Amino acid sequence: MSTPNSATAHRSDDWDRYKMEYKNPHKELEPQEKEIAVVDAALRVLQESGVLPHTRYDHAKFLAHRKAVRELFEIPWTAISPRVQRLLYAINAIVQPPYMIAAGVFCGNTFISNAGAGVGPGACYTAKVLVGIEIKPAEAERGERNVRRIDPTGVARIVAADALAVVKDWRDPIQLLYLDADGSGTKGKGIYLDILEAGYDRMPPGAVILAHNSVNSAHKLKDYFACVRDPQKFRASVNVILDPEGLEVSVR
Ligand SMILES: C[S@@+](CC[C@H](N)C(=O)[O-])C[C@H]1O[C@@H](n2cnc3c(N)ncnc32)[C@H](O)[C@@H]1O
User: Fold this and answer.
1) What pLDDT is attached to residue 7?
2) 2 or 89, which is more confident?
3) 3-state SS of the chain: helix, strand, coil percent to 5?
4) pTM of the entire structure?
């Protein structure tokens, strides 16, 4: 086994006290300047670690995206806190992936937090295909309805399928992979590693992988962490901890 790469963790000083209400995701939890400062600090660490090329994103476009989601999306619950919503948007706005896959998107809120940098009122680049995959047909339908209200073009879409099968069959490059699926039985978030391995050879250098629940599902992600922190396979990986859920951010 090789020596771990520059794997590191970045924690905001209040990550364990910053708590959202899953059924009230639009509630403001802190002043906007604080949210921006917390996310900026994380982006700087990602840049210093070599995960991101820079830290700049358009704040007004992000707010337009947030407003559209608040007004147009039906969200029964979500674990994406406002900080992480901003972080996901910013990472996508910086990486600008032509092809992005999000695995396990439930009602689509996680998906659009990523895809919102490429479609809708927050769009800041021209994307080719942004796809969210949800195994439960009813949730995929709801997610697709939600996404259509923001993106009439169809560049972003949600499909009802098994993310592992879709990634295995994928033929285009994958510049950004977002992982949030919850495997059946004892597998749980352990499915992240299966999906990552299935898509690894289509990820070009600079491809970014985001893994939600790096804190509250860490016990299921030991093998996943070992993989993304292996310098033979990934250039760098940072556990970004801004809330009790966490997001491991890795670059190929
Ligand atoms: C924990 S939820 C994600 C919710 C998200 N974190 C949020 O806050 O909105 C995980 C989702 O992954 C889906 N899922 C589980 N296994 C999957 C698979 N193999 N492919 C696609 N989706 C899957 C589940 O149906 C569920 O909707």
Assistant:
1) 53
2) 89
3) 40, 15, 45
4) 0.96
Asked if 89 and 122 count as a contact pair (C-beta separation under 8 A), the reply is yes
User: Reduced to 3 states, what is the DSSP secondary structure of residue 110?
Assistant: helix
Which pairing describes strands 176-179 and 247-251: parallel, antiparallel, or unpaired? unpaired
Copy the structure tokens of residue 54.
Answer: 């820079």
pLDDT exceeds 70 at position 1:
no
* Cα 199 to ligand 1 centre (Å): 18
Residue 137: CB atoms within 10 A of its CB come to 10
| Token output for 53 | 């090329």
Is the CB of residue 134 below 6 angstroms from any atom belonging to ligand 1? yes
| Residue 134 alpha carbon to ligand 1 centre in Å | 6
pLDDT of 20-55, one tens digit each? 999 999 999 999 999 999 999 999 999 999 999 999
Here the tokens at position 9 are: 């963790």
